[in-house]
Amino acid sequence: MAIETNVGDGNGNDLKKRRCGCSKQDFLPEDSFQSWTSYVNALSNTKSRLKDRLLARSMDHVELHEMRARSQHEMKKTLTWWDLIWFGMGAVMGSGIFVLTGEAARNHSGPAVVVSYFISGITALLSVLCYTEFAIELPVAGGSFTYLRVELGDFIAYVSAGNILFEYVVAGASVARSWTSYLATLFNHAPDSFRFHVSSFSEHYSHLDPIAVAISVVIGIAAGISMKGSARFNSAATIVQLVVILFILVVGLTKADPNNYSDFAPNGIPGILKASSILFFAYVGFDGVATFGEEIKNPGRDIPIGLIGSMLVIITVYCLLAATLCLMQPYSQIDVNAPFTLAFKAVGLKWAHYIVAFGALKGMTTVLLANLVGQSRYFTHIGRTHMAPPFLANINERTGTPVNATIMMTILNSIVAFFTSLEVLANLLSLATLFIFSMVALALLVRRYYAKGETTSCDRNKLVGFLVLILASSIANAVYWAVGKNGWIGHVVTVAVWFLATLGLKLLVKEAKKPKLWGVPLVPWLPSASVAINVFIMASVDGASFMRFVVWTLVLLVYYIFIALHASYDAAKEIEETRATATNLEVGQL
Fold this sequence. Notes:
It is found in: Membrane. This protein is an all-alpha fold and 590 residues long. Helix content is 70%, strand content 1%.
């Protein structure tokens, strides 16, 4: 394509330069940015371009073929369902289980934390089901960005992707710094011992962390060299982690005291639900695995087994670990920050904390790897649409991996991890993941019940109405919970509206599209429930996170209005012109 390859005079030297990403054309090759005159002209047409692109929906074949062609080379299909199961576990089972369990059990649910883990696990599984259907139908690198672009339009996809990428960077930097902290404790040092303190810097940015940078760079190199090699390393590291978890279960249960379960749910159902909302974040990470679509040998078979299978294993492991912890110690004595380590100390097994720390270290390593691999593939597909600099879309011919995007994300992760304290990073983790999970479930309902040119205007209007009711009732239910109302009438009303809206969608709107290979069962009930539960969990997120979400979204909007809108507009028009030219040639040949 002209935008992708015709740089300068269009010869081979220019193509090589483009791959190096060292000219303006690598970042802004579109017509709107070729001169100040063309850019001013583009800005003057912002209103019409917004109207054209705001709700513009892509199509399956565009994402599967024309978008992928912009990367110049194909990713290598090396992954099987076996690799996906290990990647799914490696992406999710990081330090979360070793940290969040303490807070949830001690402050909210007590021994019923095992029930909370099960509830949040089923909630995550609903999102996994929605992602699985999309990943099979659209096995491309963009993951949720692609799904939303096809069903809800460019703008929603852009805002969602921008927020999830920000959260990926923050999460990656946070895990990298935690890696340093756990390494220090493994050698009987304080968490900050392996960091350099610079007193002239601000307090939250004064502990410089070269180890976090080093582990990020090593992971980045591994991810860029070979996807199959990354998969093998992830599998080996995850197996080691499972051995450590097995040790915790077996040794921990030898110190079990059933009397610790005498007060099973000290705070009742509210405490269990509050703990569930906290523990949901221990299941986050599987969405990155959905970006591996282009590298899977048999998506129709491998994706359901890999994604769903890994989540079922994770739910089981988490519930067993939580149950073991509460059998080892009374819930009121569980430490909030290091529950498993101090539980072993409390029962006279002080030496075991080394094994727990080692397991957490291994878990964080696989989370870093899966995080970076998912980040780079998100960025790759966004680059293909020109909403991000298109040089990021390049796939290396030799490795079959998105090297440019991997390098970019490694640099961003390393810079943030080097300077920023864990306290700041923890506060930056927002509700973007929950927002996107809700949007993907909503997009699945749109995909099943709306097909352009086939769905009648009457059915379309009913679909919009029912979706609005599902969203509104879900938000109302979450707000009622968040404001601390103890009554049940509000929940009865909002849940009843949600139920009737979902029932109306089922009975009164004709399903427009059936999945070709594998589909979410019980549609629209399960996707609708996913929307409602994810929105409900958002109510547990603090107000500061909502403010950060809004501020970052405003930053994204500024970039969209001045850059991404015009770049994606030119790229979309190029596709239309290319398609029209091909059609004319076919007609001429006839």
